[in-house]
Structures are given as structure tokens and as C-alpha cells.
Write a structure and sequence with these properties.
- With about 140 residues, the protein is mainly α.
- The chain has a domain of about 70 residues.
- Helix content is about 70%, strand content about 0%.
- The longest helix has about 30 residues.
- It starts with 10 loop residues before the first helix and ends in a 12-residue tail after the last helix.
């Protein structure tokens, strides 16, 4: 064990890291396959998603320790600063992307989306407006 976390990385650290990476990847694949093949009954979504997130975080820790050797640095403070900054930027990009994709249907300009927006906002256009837009007229209940 002393050889595994020595100051200078050696082939043992890479082999152990590779083995742990394969094990964690296989576990995630196995959980997902069991979830799919059991028609979502043996492992539910509420169990699968946190388990996969936990395995992903463990996988990230294995990569950082065994391949990037973050624990072997004499002053790991700069590595931690860059890591936290990168993690924050990636988190912002992912959250912003999800937010944009969630709101894409609202920003579409097709005729059906215009009807959807008008109905969603509770706007009841006048019949002359609907004819100018070359769109089917809507009843008071929002149907064509």
C-alpha cells in the first residue's frame, strides 16, 4: 500500500487505477442493464440515478488520484484552484444548456408554436390578427 501512494508514480498506480476504472464502469453498465432488462422494476429510477451519479464521482476521484496524481503534488493548492474553477465552469455550461433546451419550445416561431404561446399566455387574438398572420382561427377554448 505504501508503494501505491508514493511520491513518484509507478506502473502499480496505473494498473490499480485502470482496474478500479474498469470495475466502476462495469458496475454502472451492470446497474443500467439490470434496470432496463427488468422493465424498471428491480432498480427504480429513484435508485438508479443517485447510484450512477455516485459511481461517476468515484470514477472521477480514481482518475484524479491514479492518473492525474493530484495527491502526489508538493503544493496541490494550485491544482485544486484550477480544478474547482473548471468544475464551476462546466457546471454553469451544463445548467445553462439544460435551461436553454427546456425553453426552446417557447422560443420557436412556427405557426403551431405561435398558437401554443398565445394559448399559454392566455392571449385571445382578434380574428383579423389571425387572418393577417395566415393562421387557422382559434375558438374561445383554444381549439381550431
Amino acid at each position: 500500500m505504501k508503494n501505491l501512494f508514493s511520491k513518484t508514480p509507478n506502473s502499480t498506480t496505473y494498473i490499480v487505477g485502470f482496474g478500479l476504472s474498469i470495475l466502476l464502469t462495469t458496475m454502472a453498465f451492470g446497474l443500467t442493464q439490470l434496470h432496463i432488462t427488468s422493465s424498471h422494476e428491480v432498480i427504480t429510477h429513484q435508485v438508479l440515478i443517485p447510484a450512477l451519479i455516485g459511481l461517476a464521482l468515484l470514477q472521477m476521484l480514481v482518475q484524479l488520484v491514479f492518473f492525474l496524481h493530484l495527491v502526489h503534488e508538493e503544493s496541490p493548492r494550485w491544482n485544486l484552484i484550477f480544478f474547482v474553477s473548471t468544475f464551476g465552469l462546466v457546471t454553469m455550461v451544463v445548467v445553462a444548456s439544460i435551461w436553454i433546451m427546456d425553453h426552446l419550445n417557447y422560443n420557436m416561431t412556427a405557426k403551431t408554436m405561435t398558437n401554443y404561446i398565445l394559448q399559454d399566455e392566455g392571449v385571445k387574438p382578434e380574428n383579423s390578427d389571425m387572418q393577417n398572420m395566415n393562421m387557422p382561427q382559434m375558438n374561445n377554448d383554444g381549439n381550431h
